[in-house]
C-alpha cells in the first residue's frame, strides 16, 4: 500500500528540470524482484503522461 510519494531533485526547484525524480514509500516489499517490478510498472504508467521528461522512480 502506498504510504508517501515524494518528488525530489532538480524538479523541486527548477522551472525546466531534466527529469522527474520520485520516491515511492510503501508498507513493505517481499523481495528485491517485487521492488524492481513495482519500479518498472510505475515508470511505464508515468510514461503514458507524455510529459516529455523521463521519470526516475525509486521504491
Spans of at least 5 consecutive residues with low confidence = none
Principal-axes geometry comes out as globular
Biggest β-sheet: strands ordered side by side in the sheet: 1-2-3
Q: How big a fraction of the residues is strand?
A: 25-35%
Largest sheet: 3 strands, mixed
**E-strand count:** 3
> How many domains in all?
1
Mean pLDDT: 86
Helix segment tally: 1
- What order do the SSEs take from the amino end to the carboxyl end, as H and E? EEHE
- Amount of helix: 25-40%
- By helix and strand content, what is the structural category? alpha+beta
Put the structure in a nutshell.
The chain is of the alpha+beta class and 59 residues long. 27% of the residues lie in helices and 31% in strands. The longest helix is centred in the last third of the chain and has 16 residues, at 32-47.
List the helices and strands and how they pair.
Blueprint: E1 2-8, E2 20-26, H1 32-47, E3 55-58
Parallel strand pairs: 2-3
Antiparallel strand pairs: 1-2
How would you explain this protein's 3D organization?
With 59 residues, the protein is an alpha+beta fold. It has one helix at 32-47, and strands spanning 2-8, 20-26, 55-58. It contains 1 helix and 3 strands. The radius of gyration is 12 Å and the shape is globular. The mean pLDDT is 86.
Task: List the keywords.
3-stranded mixed beta sheet, 31% strand, 1 helix, 3 strands, globular, 59 residues, 27% helix, alpha+beta
Amino acid at each position: 500500500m502506498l504510504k508517501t510519494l515524494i518528488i525530489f531533485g532538480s524538479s523541486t526547484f527548477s522551472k525546466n528540470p531534466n527529469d522527474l525524480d520520485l520516491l515511492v514509500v510503501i508498507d513493505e516489499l517481499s523481495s528485491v524482484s517485487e521492488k524492481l517490478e513495482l519500479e518498472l510498472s510505475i515508470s511505464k504508467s508515468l510514461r503514458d503522461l507524455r510529459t516529455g521528461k523521463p521519470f526516475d522512480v525509486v521504491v
